[in-house]
Write a structure and sequence with these properties.
Layout: H1 2-9, E1 26-31, E2 38-44, E3 47-53, H2 65-75, E4 84-87, E5 91-95, E6 100-101, H3 104-108, H4 110-124, H5 136-147, H6 154-169, E7 175-177, E8 186-189, E9 192-195, E10 202-204, H7 208-211, H8 229-265
Length: 266
């Protein structure tokens, strides 16, 4: 792949430590499992990095590379994200971390869930003034507009948009929200948890990321404890509908784009 080779050839521009990288890294293998981009493990002696080649359909999928870059830059001091070594609109190079994917066993572990809650809190504590709060109606509508007849179930469209409108209209503190915090994007390492793939991140609802792992009893940092329980439960119900709706819309758009790419290549 030409872009991968160009990125490797530009290794001197990578933000590595003094003497950490002394020659051009070479390709070790492609890292499988991602549904949006292509990622490759590269190495030079003991140095290892991940080169991510960004999808060409990023805008259609709701990705803003400049926003992702800003959020990654702000989160670097937290240790919650891999160190970024090099970044353009087409490629992202970051330090490779040895670890394993978050598992169901982790979700049942009190210790691991406490670590995840602490990690989310450290992320949400990072202030960001350069971005506006995500408008979830606009975000979902952008997906729906691309689908046409592939998403012709009017009632389902309205259910998602109604939930999005309810969340948009509510009063909540906007925080850095990953928006795709699935187990595949949580790396369990010897030094703690690291969250990967921040391309859908934005200023969002403080309970959305945690809702994937807490069906009930969300951490107090994620909810307004002064709300009446009825109002809180309704808010979380709408948020759960929105979360599932965004996942479904993304999958439909991704499938549409994949089919178009296949047809163009045949």
């Amino acid at each position: 792949m030409q872009l991968l080779q160009q990125t490797l050839a530009n290794w001197r521009q990578w933000n590595t430590g003094c003497g950490e990288l002394t020659a051009q890294p070479t390709l070790v293998r492609e890292l499988v499992g991602g549904r949006t981009n292509r990622s490759f493990l590269v190495a030079q002696d003991d140095f290892k990095a991940v080169v991510r080649i960004n999808t060409l359909n990023g805008v259609s999928l709701g990705i803003d590379r400049k926003r992702e870059g800003l959020i990654l830059e702000l989160l670097q001091p937290t240790g919650a994200v891999p160190k970024v070594l090099f970044r353009t609109d087409e490629v992202l190079v970051s330090v490779f971390h040895e670890g394993r994917q978050w598992s169901e066993e982790d979700s049942r572990s009190t210790q691991q869930m406490a670590a995840l809650n602490q990690l989310l809190q450290s992320i949400q504590n990072v202030e960001i003034t350069q971005l506006q709060r995500r408008n979830y109606v606009q975000y979902c509508q952008a997906y729906i507009d691309q689908l046409g007849s592939a998403f012709a179930i009017e009632g389902l469209q309205q259910t998602i948009l109604t939930a999005a409108a309810a969340i948009d209209a509510a009063d909540w503190p906007a925080v850095i929200c990953h928006h795709d915090l699935v187990p595949e994007n949580i790396l369990v390492t010897a030094d703690g948890l690291i969250v990967l793939d921040w391309e859908y991140a934005a200023l969002g609802h403080p309970a959305l990321d945690a809702l994937r792992f807490h069906k009930t009893n969300l951490p107090s940092s994620c909810v307004d404890t002064e709300m009446r329980s009825v109002s809180l439960n309704e808010s979380l119900r709408q948020l759960a509908i929105l979360l599932c709706g965004m996942d479904d819309l993304w999958s439909l758009v991704q499938n549409e784009l994949s089919e178009e790419e296949y047809e163009q290549s045949t």
